[in-house]
């Protein structure tokens, strides 16, 4: 069987989630190429060696540029802070490597456009990891929308709420600095919410955004006795309108006390409605106006039958899956695209599409003005 030799850059949260996916994918699916976990890259050699050993990476490198020079690497998996995505992805494409990239796509639209241009010029497979698109319940929502079950869409209500910054002692890490993260939850969480809105409803026509800073100073990650300025917003609320006329609201925050990682959407249409909550990710709520009057109400579909996307490859029908499974679903589709010269969505085109919305929202947050996108 043909092999796809992988390198990963970054070995913490997403490094672990991706490594798990590369390990699992051939056990539950039949990829057209066998993933070979060739090299893990990071800066802390000791931690990197332990990571590589635990997750099954054959070797390590401490400079991603050296990884790209190697001719025994076919694809690069980018799991680093956001400011590094553009430089690594462009260099990887120029070296002829396929690219599996974490979100948010890049710090700026200009960077994102350069990444897309480099990937298209090189003819490599490019994938952007908005993993929530590959939750079976979200894919069922997409199918119901495409089959006309909810009709013309009136409202998209998205929210991505976390609470890890409620603790004032949480240090000033890379996600709170402009240079490394571009923005706060608008980029980090908003990129996921906007991607799902694109996937399920369509493109935006205009956007308004209001940001808020609750805590302006935090202990430095490297020295807890000193503090530094939080350079990004703490919460961002987007409202807008899609090109198809539906209204949108998206709430992104790291200050939703008690909401640990709550990513939700509600879609209200002329004929029906849908609702999903990541914290109960196997369920889809579906309201159909076609139901008889004495049965009207939201039904609760547990999306665990083998007929649903990806589900049949896991356990017997009726058994739930979890957070890590959507990463495995991305891995199988990426491997197949690399093997067949195909594409896998969302890709760098979707990254550019989302960055246009996020930059418009950031501009609105700054000026207080509505921004037209189309
Ligand atoms: N898909 C999702 O739902 C999801 C969830 C969390 C994070 N992310 C994204 O994944 C990316 C990584 O986030 P994370 O939470 O894993 O961050 P993290 O801080 O846990 O890990 C970052 C890793 O990058 C490495 N790194 C930093 N600079 C490097 C360099 N110059 N060369 C090589 N390695 C370097 C660090 O050593 C670390 O291993 C970010 O873009 C983030 O937005 C996505």
What is the overall number of helices? 11
Average pLDDT score: 97
Approximate shape = globular
List the bound ligands: nicotinamide-adenine-dinucleotide
Total number of distinct structural domains: 2
Q: Examine the secondary-structure arrangement and name the CATH architecture of the largest domain.
A: 2-Layer Sandwich
CATH superfamily of the largest domain: Dihydrodipicolinate Reductase, domain 2
The order of strands across the largest sheet is 16-15-14-13-7-12-11-8-17
CATH class designation of the largest domain: Alpha Beta
* Radius of gyration, taken over Cα atoms and rounded to an integer in Å: 21 Å
List unreliable stretches of 5+ residues: none
Structural class: alpha/beta
Proportion of helical residues: 25-40%
Kindly state the number of beta strands: 17
What report would you give on this structure?
With 374 residues, the chain is α/β, with parallel strands linked by helices. It folds into 2 domains: 3-132, NAD(P)-binding Rossmann-like Domain (Rossmann fold, 3-Layer(aba) Sandwich), CATH 3.40.50.720; 135-342 and 353-367, Dihydrodipicolinate Reductase, domain 2 (2-Layer Sandwich), CATH 3.30.360. The protein has helices at 13-28, 45-55, 64-69, 85-94, 109-122, 136-146, 178-181, 185-188, 190-200, 325-340, 348-367; strands at 3-9, 34-41, 59-61, 75-78, 98-102, 126-129, 153-162, 204-212, 217-219, 227-229, 235-242, 247-253, 261-269, 272-277, 283-288, 299-302, 371-372. The strands form 3 sheets. A 9-stranded mixed beta sheet has the order 16-15-14-13-7-12-11-8-17. The chain has a 6-stranded parallel beta sheet with strand order 3-2-1-4-5-6, with helices on both faces. Strands 9-10 form a two-stranded antiparallel sheet. The chain is globular. The termini are far apart. Residues 9-15, 41-44, 64, 79-82, 84, 102-104, 129, 131, 188 line the site of nicotinamide-adenine-dinucleotide.
